[in-house]
Design brief:
The protein is of the alpha+beta class. The protein is globular. It is about 40% helix and about 20% strand. The chain has a 5-stranded antiparallel β-sheet, with helices on both faces. Strands 1-2 form a two-stranded antiparallel ribbon. A two-stranded antiparallel sheet has the order 5-6. The termini are far apart. It has 2 domains: about 40 residues; about 230 residues, Beta-lactamase, CATH 3.40.710.10. α3 runs antiparallel to α10, α4 crosses α7 and α5 runs antiparallel to α6. The chain has 10 helices and 9 strands.
Amino acid sequence: MKDKKESQNFFVKKMPLYLILSLSAVTIYGLNYTFKYFNTGQPKIENPVEPKCVNPLCIIRETDYKLTRPILLADSKGDDKKYEGIKKQINDNIESFEKTSVISNASVYFCDLNDGSQFNINPDQKYRPTDMLEITKMIALLKQSEKKPSLLEQKVLYQKRINSTTQAPSSNVSLENNKSYSVRSLIYAMFAGSDENATLALNPLIDQTLLKGIYDAVQEPYPGINDTNYLTTVANYSKLLKVLYNVGYLTETNCEIALELLSNNSFKDGILKYLPNGVKTVHYFAENNNGNSKEMHEFAIIYLNNKNYLLSIMSKGSDKKSLALLFSNISKIIFDTVNKAS
């Protein structure tokens, strides 16, 4: 009996009241947390991370391989709401030109190449890209050179079969009639000097099955080697520049070559006009005449403080100078906005 009493006294002495209360509180908290955990499935997250990609993605894959399907593009679907203000400015600018009847249509596509956010103005309007088909021809020749590296140095006879009435060649690009040039030199003349005869000289070398595969890859109908009636939208044709920028179809080296070639285009009165000196750009310009109606198109990648973006404009109108002014106004609006945010 004495032993039992001593044992009870031991526990009373060794377990103070504050310790008993503390253990009780911990036990109640533990039971409460366990109940919440198993009823909610997981602990509550105070600050959930918002996903960066708000719009669903359209994934375009290459299908030329047996077991793999390389991703060519992962494009956002729809316009990002953060661009509503800049879209209004550009729409107001287009409408002011339309009121003067110097333009009849203009479509604009913008894409932030860092996060893929984009907007599109008049996205369903179709245009004849004509000379812009040269981009796909260059891509085809560079793709062929990956299997045959000597192709770019192969000599080809250059002949002046037509006189270009749409674009004056750059002063530093002048090829002599009935003289042979390397494929590399002819591609350069095709872009830097807008030389249609260089394009004609290159056409027989292009693998048309491969050329068709390029259009299939970006989900565009195949226009053939020289279909002047081919129609496309501004966003669809922009895919070609994004494929080069993202190194989705050619090797890294050939994508660099392609973009360098595009950076030599001689037209400076559109998208590039109000850009500051020293801003790196890759761009291509083309125009075509159809009676009194004129189409003018320009595509550009602007490299701005690691905030690189793609701007594409396609248009119809009657006056080249007015169309060029519209392009430069749109470009300035976008550059000023992006530059301020970067």
